[in-house]
Amino acid sequence: MSHPTRLPADIARDPTPLGQRIAAIDIGSNSIRQLIADVTPRGEIRVVDEMKAAPRLGHGLSHTGRLGDTNMDEAIAALSRMATLAKQLDVSRIEVVATSAVRDAANGAAFLARVRRETGLRCRILRGDEEAHLAFRSALAHFELGRGRSVVMDIGGGSLELALAAEGLVERLVSFPFGAIRLTERYLAGRPGPKGVRKLRKAVRKEIKKALPLRDWRNAEVIGSGGTFTNLAGMYLARQGVKVRSVHGTRVPRQEVEHLLEQLATMSVEERLAVPGLNAGRADLIVAGLAVAAEVLARVEPRELLTSAYGIREGLVLESARVTPTIADPGEARERSVVAFAERCHYEAPHAEQVRRLALQLFDAMGTRIGCEPEDRQILADAALLHDVGYHINYVAHHKHSYHLILHADLLGITPTDQVLIAQVARYHRGKRPRREHEAWWALDRASRERVVRLAALLRLADGLDRGHSSAIERVKVRWLDRAIRITLVPRRASDPLRLEAWGGARKAALLGEVAGVPIEVVAPNGAVLRADD
User: Fold this and answer.
1) Contact between 461 and 509 (Cβ < 8 Å)
2) Judgement on whether residues 433 and 346 belong to the same structural domain of the protein
3) Angstrom distance (rounded) from CA 161 to CA 438
4) Got the DSSP string for 63-106?
């Protein structure tokens, strides 16, 4: 399953080459969102356009039992714009669904009749379990759920949905009336502070105990979708000093959820507006949403929460296209996504794969001794495969183009932090080594800067060892001597002298020598020894 990607304007006007073009509109309790996307027969979602409005249909519903007139007027206006956009972009089908607010309101049916009359859109009301299933379908398309147990949690304005699955197969779908708007109005009106949060959490805790038996779901992977979670990830990354294009895939430690909840519960809405990473439109609802999330996490007890930037709309698009996402085991979806992105950039596969193979041989032989951690291996592997995608723009400064392309790519199974590191390592596979004047690299924390230098040093040497793009080296042998690291090249063909490869490797070995603290010697099959300073 390919990660959603935004299409350039010329392709966006012509849906034919990419399969069905579908518009999905989700009328929620807080916001109305539209997604227009092309869906290929293989299930790839390619975003054409998006539109959002926040009429807050659920506002006041818990007190009056009805949708407010002003909220309905704003919703109708937004839906009219969305219908027009869908028509202009030549969609083949428009799917419109309504969730908790319309489902629970006494005048919900009348509102949908008005929607049909004034916009021409037909809308169906989703049951809670249908919401949960769409959220799960979206998660299945964007995460590797093929092994172990998972809990997909979607928090909207009016309800909480849970999808409980094992090995990528749904076991149970559950819905609760625990939406952010509903709970804010019931427990957190005014400024009740921690006391209101405690009452809210107690009520949530009592109900979810019945749906989540501990023996079955303890330590399951928990995935959160909805505005509560994207804002949570944004605040967490801001606290870490990490700047990313998308928060999708961010892993937030469970204790960080509690810390942020405790901090925000003591603040006024106005004070929350100054919190980095928190969207202004979510400032009054975030405490209720985090309180619900915290209770689910306390019940399941995972180490961390995995954030999804996608939800019901993407699930609806897949359902409408009659596409079932592929269940992926850990690592499978990431590899497919990286390779698919490389292919879109018309990469030179034999060279990229050879550089990755050599880089990983060097990592396995030297990584621990130069300070690498086990998780760095996958960062290096992905950076090696993608290091030359900048050729897609042009050769000149292609390493810088690679950095920008990777940084803005939609890559499945990769956290935002890892994606930044992959882009940085690829950027430094050639050219000047990292230095303080390079703002993007210097903006990283010290540990991340050092990781980039170590991995880029390995990648530089691996790239140099395939200087002629001929994949002539079968493997490398590494010996760590007292005053040097000796890297002996083993050719695929015994008669190959590997002159160009030995020269290329020695030429790009200086940074690795600095990292290791001793010079790098490259030994050709004939015994000739080359060093970076030769």
Assistant:
1) yes
2) yes
3) 45
4) HHSS--HHHHHHHHHHHHHHHHHHHHTT-SEEEEEE-HHHHH-T
Q: Are 164 and 145 in contact (CB under 8 A)?
A: no
Say what the pLDDT of residue 194 is.
85
Question: Which residues, other chains included, contact 390 with Cβ-Cβ below 8 Å and sequence gap of 6+?
Answer: 397, 398, 399, 400, 401, 402, 403, 404, 405
Look at the alpha carbons of 321, 28, 174, 254 in this order and tell me if their dihedral is positive or negative: positive
Other C-beta atoms lying within 10 Å of the C-beta of residue 297: 23
Question: What is d(CA 389, CA 343) in angstroms, rounded to the nearest whole number?
Answer: 9
Q: Are 64 and 138 in a shared domain?
A: no
Q: Determine contact, residues 95/22, Cβ cutoff 8 Å.
A: yes
Give the up-direction half-sphere exposure of residue 55: CA atoms within 13 A in the CB hemisphere: 22
The reply to whether 324 falls in a domain is no
Residue 326 DSSP one-character state? P
CB atoms near residue 273 (< 10 Å):
13
Given a cut of 50, is residue 84 above it in pLDDT? yes
State the amino acid at position 360 in one-letter form. L
Whole-prediction pTM: 0.74
Is 498 found in the same domain as 370? yes
Instruction: Please state whether beta strands 32-39 and 20-27 pair in parallel, antiparallel, or not at all (unpaired).
Output: antiparallel
Residues 119 and 135 in one domain: no
pLDDT of residue 394: 83
Measure CA 467 to chain center: 34
Question: What CATH number is attached to the domain comprising 360?
Answer: 1.10.3210.10
pLDDT of residue 240: 86
Whether 279 and 165 have beta carbons less than 8 Å apart is answered as no
Structural domain tally of the chain?
A: 3
Enter the tokens of residue 71: 């909220």
Range of the domain at 74: 5-125
156 and 297, same domain (yes or no): yes
The pLDDT score that the predictor gives to residue 42 is 67
Domain of residue 104, CATH code? 3.30.420.40
Task: State the pLDDT at residue 20.
Answer: 86
User: Are the beta carbons of 383 and 399 closer than 8 angstroms?
Assistant: no
Examine residue 80 and state whether it is found in any structural domain, yes or no. yes
Instruction: State the burial class of residue 96 (Cβ atoms within 10 Å of its Cβ: 0-12, 13-18, 19+).
Output: buried
Dihedral sign computed on CA atoms, order 71, 73, 76, 82: negative
Residues 6+ apart with CB under 8 A from 259: none
Q: Are residues 62 and 151 in the same domain?
A: no
pLDDT tens per residue, range 407-450: 888 787 788 889 999 999 999 999 999 999 999 999 999 999 99
Distance CA 444, CA 396 (A): 26
- DSSP 3-state of 9: helix
Query: Are 286 and 182 within 8 A, CB to CB?
Result: no
Task: Give the Cα separation of 261 and 284 in Å (integer).
Answer: 13
302-336 pLDDT per residue, tens: 999 999 988 888 888 888 877 777 776 667 778 88
Which neighbouring-strand residues pair with 489?
A: 476
